[in-house]
Amino acid sequence: MVKQRILALDVFRGITIFAMILVNNPGSWSHVYAPMLHAKWHGCTPTDLIFPFFLFIVGVAIELSLGGQLRKGQAKRTLVKKSLIRSLKLIGLGLLLTAFPYFDFANLRFPGVLQRIGIVYFISTLMYLYWSPRTLVIASSAILVGYWLCMTLIPVPGIGPANLDPGTNLAAWIDQQILTGHMWSQTKTWDPEGLFSTLPAIVTCLLGVACGKVLTGYSNHQERLTKWGLSGVALLIAGVLWSLVFPMNKALWTSSFVLYTAGWAFLGLAACYWILDVQGWKKWSVPFVIYGMNAITVFFLSGVIAKLFGLIKVSWEGEAVSVMFFLQEALFNGWLAPKNASLAGAILMMVILFIPAYLMWKRNIVIKV
User: Fold this and answer.
1) Are 140 and 131 in contact (CB under 8 A)?
2) In Å, how far from its chain's centre is CA 256?
3) Distances (CA, A) of 209 to 56, 58, 205
4) Which of 15, 202, 213, 356 has most Cβ atoms within 10 angstroms of its Cβ?
């Protein structure tokens, strides 16, 4: 039974949101170091780990929060209601962030990061509350195997044989039937947070629940670290082997991608736990705790500020340029190599976002979504 707050989880969440902001806000998309870019299609870069890590952390939090309330006798119906409200808030924030600042609802993109988090959180909560751990394992396995078979065996209507190519696979076809005109603007024919690929994303969250059960089920440090280490390695191996026939792909959230990224999540949390909660090396973690304390708020603000910096104009050398362009030109371009200048721009955004995060942390303000 967990009797105190696990610092490792707060820091792991903070590192994840820290990385998410870093890769989402380069000074120039034309000059970015390869590890800070998503894989072009098949494959998995360090950047591809970030979103599944966040869903995994949501799963850990489900076990720690809802599990604790269940053990205290809280009614499941009450927990479902609370979870539904939180899910709707996340979806609403995601749609608001997408709509800002033009609010063109006729062409509004429906899917998104926060929207997927909200949907996955609620479905995972229902499964967690009403199904046994054994049933969850069976259901998760069925989802991953079923998704693999559907994506690789079912012919795509109007296209031909099953395939995993951009825009012509089964997941893309489903999005086209339901979300036409409301998908990612860069593709318009498929969405990286589309409908069908949300199913395996639920398993990512449920693997986080399994990770959380190690925390609540074992009190010994060595037992926890051993369970997490063995689980992480097993998932990594399974993911790599499965990728031989069902390639890792974040946009499709393939089954091999689920296992592989969850493996790294287990090992990442274990590393944080060993450093912070076992060894007690905590001083370095404060900035990440600050980010992790209000992770959703910081992510939302990052989207708003980035859009505002791209819209607001200032005078620079006789021309009207965006604040983003001005800061990049005035502070970094010209004296830094292009990729270093771009990285410096991303770091600047992180510093800017650290200010409200720090003020909230200092005043112990936690905005719960």
Assistant:
1) no
2) 17
3) 8, 8, 7
4) 202
pTM of the model: 0.94
pLDDT, tens digit, 9 for 90 and up, residues 301-360:
999 999 999 999 998 888 899 999 999 999 999 889 999 999 999 999 999 999 999 999
Residue with tokens 């992480």: 232
Q: Is residue 107 helix, strand or coil?
A: helix
Inter-residue contact 114 to 122 (CB < 8 Å): no
CA 70 to chain centre: 26
CB 273 within 8 A of CB 224: yes
CA angle 54, 56, 61 (to 5 degrees): 95
Q: Identify the sign of the CA torsion 335, 341, 345, 351.
A: negative
Q: Which two tokens stand for residue 101?
A: 């600042």
Yes or no: say if 354 and 287 are a contact pair by the CB < 8 Å rule. Answer: yes
How far apart CA 45 and CA 311 sit, in angstroms, is 31
Helices (H), 183-319: 198-217, 221-242, 255-272, 286-293, 295-311
Q: What is the CA radius of gyration of the chain?
A: 21
Of the candidates 96, 301, 87, 40, the residue with the CA atom closest to the CA atom of residue 198:
87
Side-chain-side CA neighbours of 22 within 13 Å: the count stands at 19
Domain segments of the chain as ranges: 7-283
